[in-house]
Amino acid sequence: MSKKKTLQDIFDDDEFDILKPTAARVVKTEDERLIESFLEINVFFKKNNREPEATNVTEFKLISRLKALRKDAKKVAILKSFDLHNLLNSKEEIKSVADILNDDDLGILDTDETVSIFNLKHIKSATERAETDFTARRKAMKDRDFAPYETQFKKVHKELREGNRKLKEFKDVEQNLNSGNYYVLDGVLLFLEDDGIEKRQLGNTSRNDGRTTIIFENGTKSNMYYRSLSKSLYNNGSIVSDTDKDAEEELFKNANIINKEDVQTGWIYVLRSKSTNPEIASINNLYKIGFSSIDVNERIKNASKESTYLYANVHLLDKYACYNMDAQKFEHLIHRFFAEVCLNVDVFDDKRNRITPREWFVAPRKIIDKVVTLILSGEILKYKYDNVNLALIEK
Fold this sequence. Notes:
Elements: H1 7-12, H2 30-48, H3 57-70, H4 73-79, H5 97-102, H6 112-118, H7 126-136, E1 139-140, H8 143-161, E2 167-169, H9 173-176, E3 181-185, E4 188-194, E5 198-202, E6 205-209, E7 213-216, E8 220-222, H10 226-236, E9 237-240, H11 244-253, E10 264-273, H12 278-281, E11 286-292, H13 296-299, E12 314-323, H14 327-337, E13 347-348, E14 354-355, E15 360-362, H15 365-377, E16 383-386, E17 391-394
Antiparallel strand pairs: 1-8, 2-9, 3-4, 3-9, 4-7, 5-6, 7-8, 10-11, 10-12, 11-15, 13-14, 16-17
Helix pairs in contact: 2-3, 7-10
């Protein structure tokens, strides 16, 4: 008969460590998470000797976090001993009586009259309405619904890191807040799937508003009002620019698709310089490709007085009528396409001010003609210029 095992025998016979206690998982407190998030900002400041800026998604998240911390007195108190670079000191310069009144956090300057007149207990301010609208209507998406958006968000992040997209200041709502665009709000990337714009009548005035459809990179969805979104982006947001490829495709979407109601938007022209300046005259295959919204002969009649024409008369070689063409995007495309053969020379005006023109290119005439033809057809996006072999090659 075997000896009855004691409890200690059982522990001693634990061959597979089944009874061995495991280390308890350390759960960070809210304060620890707060401190950790602030230390990340400290590290950035120490490394770069400046505060984060809204120039890319990473820095935008840090500066948004810092601004939020500065507004929270309780969090500032917790982080005070960790604020090695005085980053939480958000004291603003007082320049007017209004600044003093606005900075009266304790209500010391309030009178019964000001409290009763301005403290509207049951009416939210426009800012409060925007914030409520923004936070209250975000709902989590199902994984399968969010999956296609997640792929695109990752692609946009990659394009931002590689410099193919940029963050730009948000302004001009009517022009910049449109369906299909990406934005960064409070450090979070969002996609405006539908701007929901409709005309709304308020008394004698009408304005654009409506329920949007917004997808956030964290897998949530919102249908906040168009105007609420615009206010939030004005306060703490940025526009994510299109890639160069997107901009070029947009340029050709309607270009030269001529309808009965269309109006000619201008001319693409090719010029050769008549300059007697040895630095200019000695360059073979030097041409200017330009765009004019007025008659080309009228545009170049004072060429000898303009830096864009190298302060010399020019010879017009060709001009092409074009429709629905955006001049700025056209010039951007040309500069990118011929970037390697852009003229690099300085010219001086009559006051000896130095100017470096960027609208002239060194390439064979037949290449120039072919490029203009491809631009008008929209096929230029399929090609690039081989400067070594002086040829157009398919991408």
